[in-house]
Amino acid sequence: MHAVIQIAAYWAVAFLTLGLAMVFLNIFFGIIGNDLELRSLGAEIATVGVASLVEAVSVWLVISFAPTATRALVVPVIIVALIYKIAHFEDWSRFDIFMLLIFQVVIGCFGVSLMFGHFQMAISILIGFAGVLAVIASFAKDLI
Questions:
Q1: What distance in Å separates the CA atoms of residue 113 and residue 85, rounded to the nearest whole number?
Q2: What percent of the chain has pLDDT over 90?
Q3: CA 141 to chain centre
Q4: DSSP character at residue 73
Q5: Burial of 5 by CB count in 10 Å (0-12 exposed, 13-18 middle, 19+ buried)?
Q6: Closest by alpha carbon to 35, among 83, 96, 87?
Q7: CA dist., res. 136 & res. 134, Å (int)
Q8: Contacts of 60 by beta carbon, 8 Å cutoff, 6+ apart
Q9: pTM for the whole thing?
Q10: Burial of 135 (0-12, 13-18, 19+ CB in 10 A)
């Protein structure tokens, strides 16, 4: 497969998971009474686009040239966190960025489990993540 097609496919998946993570994180923060301050829709889409492009190119580089160096994917995670910290410098804390990345990982793992037909694993991921979110919400409600 041509490299541009591979990068475009990785970018689409990264854009979808990061976009869904933003939506679900906003819903979760609305439920617990915390306000996730977002920019305009265009600014958020541009931020998601740039961050997902960094993720896609990084995954493509690792898969294509160094498949045993999966630990190198920590670097794009740090870059994406910096992109979001710069884009929401005054509004977001480290917790918000960490939660966004965790939401993206869970959405990605859930999607991969469904795609490969591991429905029990997908349900386990959802139940486990819902439990973790319930614990976080109970602590957050007590702090407010």
A1: 30
A2: 74
A3: 24
A4: G
A5: exposed
A6: 96
A7: 5
A8: 3, 6, 7, 10
A9: 0.91
A10: exposed
Mean pLDDT of 112-133: 96
Token representation of residue 28: 């979760």
Which tens digits make up the pLDDT trace of 45-86? 999 999 999 999 999 999 999 988 888 899 999 999 999 999
Tokens of 45: 């889409």
Q: Is 118 left (phi over 0), alpha (psi -120 to 50) or beta?
A: beta
Q: How confident is the model at residue 143 (pLDDT cuts 50, 70, 90)?
A: low
DSSP conformation class of 89: T
Is residue 7 a contact partner of residue 57, using CB atoms and an 8 Å limit? yes
Domain ranges of the chain: 3-143
The CA-based dihedral angle spanning residues 38, 41, 47, 51, taken in that order and rounded to the nearest 10 degrees: 100
Structure tokens at 42: 């265009």
> Would you state the pLDDT for residue 121?
97
